[in-house]
Amino acid sequence: MTLSPFESDRLILTFWTGDLELARFADRAGVDRVGVDLEVIGKAERQEGLNTWISGHKENLIPAMKEQLSRAKLFARSNPLHPGSVDEVERLIDMGVEVLMLPYFTTSKEVATYARLVRDRAHVVPLLENIQAAQIVEDLVALDEIQEIHVGINDLGLSLGFQNRFLTLATDLVVHIASCVGQSGKRLGFGHVGRAMDTSLPIPSDLVYAQYARLGARATIVSRKFVYDSGMVEQDFIAEVQKVRERMDFWYRSSSEDLTNAYQTYRTLLQNLTGQDPAQFSFSK
């Protein structure tokens, strides 16, 4: 299913890093949100045995991070809602964080509670990354305090029992999520983004870009692999971010037929890689 993208919306790019120089590069490259990933509670247990990255970023990095930014909004992914959330939110806002991402919730009540802690002092982005949260997406988009939802395909894929996270983007479940968010008029974000036209990846980056456009996503996260190449300098970062925007614009302007063809190519490649056809999985409520 091809969903209409929001033609008037700018693609929002987020980058989290513990490297102050890279934060400055990202700001100068026009990345919209730059900051830290503080999520640790429950993450190691969820991703045990997987070759996934868990952040070592610390709150005390935030003031120095803020000093690197002249255009980007200061960002932080906090921990899931927990007994220390009141203090955590207050500390982050006091340090100037303007965008807060709430990970791994399962109910709309958790999101509403978190938003009440923030009290409109920062932009709240719920990170939808499990089947329970996906099943209450209608309740999420009904929350007045929330204007954006980001879908994390790593943990959502784990929740669905997938060994390959990219299978998630080809299911009817994400079409349902995208449709609900799109109809609400709120911004939809998906996953991470690699360098434009990178064919060295198991799934070429361009095919992933096409799925984001097909689903109507207008926000994504710049992946760690995007920047951690030997010799990365500021001009490289600026050029690569521009290429991302240009290629995403290409897919936003593409016809429904082109997006459908890209989806079929993506689906076939995944089927060949995993032995599974993601379109055969149904997650209807």
CATH homology superfamily name: Phosphoenolpyruvate-binding domains
CATH topology: TIM Barrel
Proportion in helices: 40-55%
Order of helices and strands: EHEHHEHEHEHHEHHEHEHHH
Number of helices: 13
Q: Output the structural class.
A: alpha/beta
Q: Main sheet: which strands, in order across? A: 1-2-3-4-5-6-7-8
Mean pLDDT: 90
State the low-pLDDT regions, or none.
1-8
Tally of domains: 1
Key features?
13 helices; 8 strands; alpha/beta; TIM Barrel; globular; single chain; eight-stranded parallel barrel; 285 residues; disordered N terminus
Walk me through this protein's architecture.
The chain has 285 residues and is an alpha/beta fold. It is built from 13 helices and eight strands. Helix 1 (20-28) crosses helix 12 (234-253). The longest helix is centred in the C-terminal third of the chain and has 20 residues, at 234-253. Residues 1-8 have low confidence and may be disordered.
SSE topology:
Elements: E1 12-16, H1 20-28, E2 33-37, H2 43-46, H3 62-67, E3 73-77, H4 85-94, E4 99-102, H5 108-118, E5 123-128, H6 131-135, H7 137-141, E6 148-151, H8 153-159, H9 172-184, E7 187-193, H10 205-215, E8 219-222, H11 224-227, H12 234-253, H13 256-274
Parallel strand pairs: 1-2, 1-8, 2-3, 3-4, 4-5, 5-6, 6-7, 7-8
Summarize the structure.
The protein has 285 residues and is of the alpha/beta class.
